Amino acid sequence: MKKLIILALAFNSFLAHATLKKGFDSLLFNNDKYSTKSFLVIKDGKTLYQNSSKLYSVEKKQRVWSATKSIAGTLIGIAEKHGLINRNELVSKYYPKVSNKLTIQHLLNMSSGLTWNESYESNPLNSDVLKMLYISNFKDMAKFVSKKDQKYQPGEYFNYSSGESNFLMSVLQKKLSLSDYESFPWRKLFIPLGIKDVTWERDHQNNFVASSYLYISPVDLAKIGQLYLNKGEWNGVQIFDEEWVEFSSLNSPSTFKTELKGHMSGATYGAHWWLNKAHPKFGKKHKNAPVDILMALGHHGQSMTIIPSEKMIIVRTANDRENRFNLNDVFSLLFKDKYVRGEAK
Question: Which domains does the chain show, CATH number per domain?
Answer without folding.
Answer: 23-335 (3.40.710.10)
